[in-house]
Amino acid sequence: MNTEAKMKITERAVAKLANSMRIYAEANARFNELKKVDLEEAIDNLDRAFEAKLEAFHSVYDVDRAVFNYFDHADTALILMLRNAIHHRDHELFSSWNNTMAQDGGPHRFRGAEFLIASHTLVGEAHVGRQLYKAEDFLFRLDPSQNSPALEGKMGALNRSKLLGQLKANLSFNEFFSKARREGYPNKQLYFNVIPLFISAVCRVFRSLRARGVRFVGYDANAYEMHFTDDLKVDLSSLSYATIRIN
Question: What pLDDT sits at residue 82?
Answer without folding.
Answer: 97
